[in-house]
Write a structure and sequence with these properties.
mainly beta; Lipocalin; 5-stranded mixed sheet; 4-stranded antiparallel sheet; 4 helices
Amino acid sequence: MNKVFVIFVTSIFLTNCSFNENSRIWNKKEKIEDENKVSKKILAEKKVISTEFNPLLKLDLSKNEPNNKIFDQLNNFGSSKYNGQINKINSYKFSKLENFNQFNFDPLILSDGVIVFEKKGTIIRFNDNKKVVWKNNFYSKTEKKVHPTLSFAITDKNLLVADSIAKISNIDLQNGDLIWSKKSEYPFNSEIKIHKDKFFVVDFKNTLRCFYLKDGSECWNIKTEESFTVSNSKFSILIRDNLVIYNNSLGDITAIDISSGLIEWQLPTQKSSIINETYGFNFSKLVSDGNSIYFSNNKNQFFSVDLTSGTTNWMSEINSILTPIIVGNLVFTVSENGYLFTIKKNEGNIVRINDVYKNFNLKKRKRIKPTGFTIGNNNLYLTNSDGNLIVVNLSAGNVLKIEKVARDLISKPLIYNENLFIVKNGSITQFD
C-alpha cells in the first residue's frame, strides 16, 4: 500500500513539474524562450551590412578643399592634394620584417624623403633620391634578437621613438645621433603625440604616459583597466587644447587634462564581459573634427562621441577597423567586407553604401580584406591584403581602376606633396 502511494505521489509531482508554466524546475517552455532570446541577441550583435544602399547617389564635393597635411593632432587629414595616374617613380628598400602587418609598420614621410625601421631596430633616413642620409641602430645584441617594433614622431629638429621593448629615445633628425634614451616599465603600442614640451604614448598595460621632451623623464601616467590579451591594433591619441584623448585595448576612450594628469571623462564602449573576449578585438584610429570623435571596431560599431563631454552622439552598425576620413559634413569608412560607407557626420545617417568588391567573385572576396584608405582630391584609394590598390570615384561611388602593387599584403596608402606612398614588406613605393 505504501509503495503504491509513493508511486502515485511521485507521478503527480513529475507531472506538475513538466506542465506547470509557473514551475522553475524543468520548465521546457521557459527554457526554449530563453534560448530564443539568447539566439536573437547574438544574431543582432553579429549583423553585418552586406548590401548596397543608394549606390547611384551623387555626392556634391565641389566645396572640398584638399590639403597637404602629414601630421595632425586630431588625426584629421581629410582629402589630400593628389590626382596622379599611379605611375611608380621611386622605391625605398630595406630589410623585411618578420611579422609585417598593416598596424605595426608606420613609416615617417618627410618633405624630402622617408624614415623607416628594419627588423633588428635599425633606423634609416632616406632622401627623396633614395640615398641613405643616415643609418643607426642603438640596440644591444639581446634587444636586436627581439625585433622591436618602432613608432615615430618628429619635432623641428629631433626624431622621437617609442618601441615594443619599453624604450623611448630622442634622436637628432639631421645626423641620426642619439640624444637620450630611457627604459620604461612596459612595451609601447601606440602612436606618439607631442604637445609643447611634452609627448605622450600608451603602453601594453593600457597606461598613458606623459614624458618631457628635454630628457625623457616621466611627468605623470594614467592607468586604465588591463586586458588579458594584446590587440593587433595600435592605440591612437588625440590632442585638443589642454586635453589628451586616447583609446585602450578594451575599447575605453579616456580624456586627460594635460597640465594636471587628471581624468576629465571616460567612456567605456564595450560591456564588461569583453575583458574575457579581447582576443581578436581590433579598432580604428580615433579621428576628430575638433567637436566630435569618430572611430569604429570589428564588433560592428561605429561611434561619434562629443569631444568635450565624452557623451555618445550616435552609433551605427558598421564593421570596420580602418581609420575614418572626414570631408566636409561627411565621414567615409570601408567595412571589412569591402563596402564603402558615406555617413552624415552630425546625425549619423548613412546616405550611401557602395560595394567596392562587386567585381570580385565570392571565392576571392572571402580571401581579401581592406587594409587602409586615403582620399586624394575626389578619389578614394583603397589598399587590400591581396596587394591590389582600388581607385574609387568618391562623388559617384564607382570603381575607376584596380592596380596591382604587390603579390600580397600592402599597408594603408599615404599622400604627401602630391605623391602616393604604399608600404609592402621590405620597401616603400612612391607614385606620382
